[in-house]
Amino acid sequence: MKTLLLLGGMTPDVTKLYYDIINRAARSALGGRHNAPLYLYSANLEAMVQYAGAGDWDSFAKVYTDAIDALADKVDAVVVSAILAHKVTPQLTQSLSSSSSTGVPLLHIADCVSSHLKAQHPQVHTVGLLGPKITMLDRDDPDFFIGRLESPKNGFRVVVPETQAEIEEVNRGMMEEVTKGIAAVTPQTKAMFLQQVNRLIERGAQGIILGSTDLGFVVRQEDLPEGVIVIEPGSIHAAEAAKWALES
């Protein structure tokens, strides 16, 4: 099994989710006492949120590129366990290019979600997205999340809340409650998320992407109308990364 560098810490719950999924896949495929060979670097969520809020993407990226610079020659691929952190994809891939002599890839979360949907839900072409404001608004960046999903290679249509007020309220729920863990999410905020889900469905969404890997702890499949799927990028990303690592 190939060795992965897991860049985590945007929340510890999500880092644990990735670690558990990858190791379960390794044990299921290889049997016995096998675990996945992993290096794990966990960033400080508070520092990362401050960098992102200030638009200081160079400092944000450096937290992870320092880990890449130290470990790139020891791993076969890098997995970042947060959608938001893919905002610095160019910096991460540049660091990989300069630090590794063997062309270590970044397994991008949007590409993994695209591969999963095309294989498992080929009927889904339009998806709704809820998450931090940065993720919902920055659709013009071809290396980030929406831009990557809407690229000719992946070919999805992505819809987000229509008004600035709705985007701000979703962002508030994400940053002030969801990132602190499921216990911090109030019933009112969960109801707001579900209201936004229904509005996205009314605008054609056939699946709802939880645009933060933590949101999967709040919005679940049973909360959605029949025939509309919940798309949990974190779980998909981890499973696809494990599948890649297990390929000979």
TrEMBL record:
It comes from the Eukaryota. It holds the Pfam family Asp_Glu_race. One of its GO terms (molecular function) is amino-acid racemase activity. InterPro entries: Asp/Glu/hydantoin_racemase (IPR015942), Asp/Glu_race (IPR001920), Asp_race (IPR004380). Keywords: Isomerase. Belongs to the aspartate/glutamate racemases family. This is Aspartate racemase.
